[in-house]
Automatic annotation (TrEMBL):
Source domain of life: Bacteria
Originating species: Novosphingobium nitrogenifigens DSM 19370
Pfam families the record matches: Rhodanese
Gene3D superfamilies registered for this protein in UniProt: Rhodanese-like domain
Cited CDD domains: RHOD
Protein name per the record: Rhodanese-like protein
């Protein structure tokens, strides 16, 4: 009976610990868990971009649109730098997909791939706005836009409605694959 009580106590403690909620935000103010939820604040110093303004832009032609939605069930093959996907992904035409870069704690390899692309586009198009998005009520784009702006990247916008708002406004979506992480970046991270 004593062993049963000890076992039950251990299970109860484990259950209790697993139901305790992790903090929603880390010490720097990035959302760290439960990413799909209503967003109640601006991603300062990034600027919120309303739907009507986003719809006036032409991704890849006068603005850099960055999709940071995760690759559900997918993973990065660190040998090739390519993503192995479990399902397809539709997004805003002309945008670039960098999965997992909106997490509270971002894999440095994935973040460096995103920032390298931002730097390359900025070199060629210094005045283009950078528009970061995922889905409506998703903190990942909030995190990524804020992180870029806090790193000193100018003209960074958070498009809160994201893929959902774009599609709900009658705009088409296209199937894309994630941007490849360069083999040099993969080697440097090893």
């Amino acid at each position: 009976m004593l062993l049963a009580g000890v076992a039950f106590g251990v299970r109860a403690s484990a259950m209790e610990a697993s139901t305790q909620e992790l903090p929603l935000f880390d010490r720097l103010g990035f959302r760290a868990t439960r990413y799909r939820a209503v967003i109640d604040r601006a991603p300062t110093p990034a600027i919120s971009m309303p739907l009507d303004r986003a719809l006036r832009l032409h991704p890849g032609k006068d603005a850099l649109f960055l999709d940071v939605l995760p690759a559900e069930g997918g993973h990065l093959d660190r040998t090739s730098g390519r993503w192995m996907l479990a399902e397809s992904h539709d997004t805003i035409p002309g945008s670039l997909w960098f999965p997992e870069t909106g997490r509270g704690v971002v894999d440095p390899l994935l973040w460096s791939a995103l920032t390298a692309r931002v730097e390359a586009v900025r070199h060629d198009h210094p005045d283009w706005p950078i528009v970061v998005f995922c889905r409506a009520d998703c903190w990942m784009s909030w995190n990524a836009s804020r992180r870029l702006a806090r790193a000193g990247v100018a003209n960074v916008f958070w498009f809160a409605e994201g893929i959902d708002g774009w599609h709900d406004a009658g705009r088409a979506l296209v199937q894309v694959v994630p941007e490849t992480v360069s083999v040099a970046q993969v080697r440097n991270a090893s």
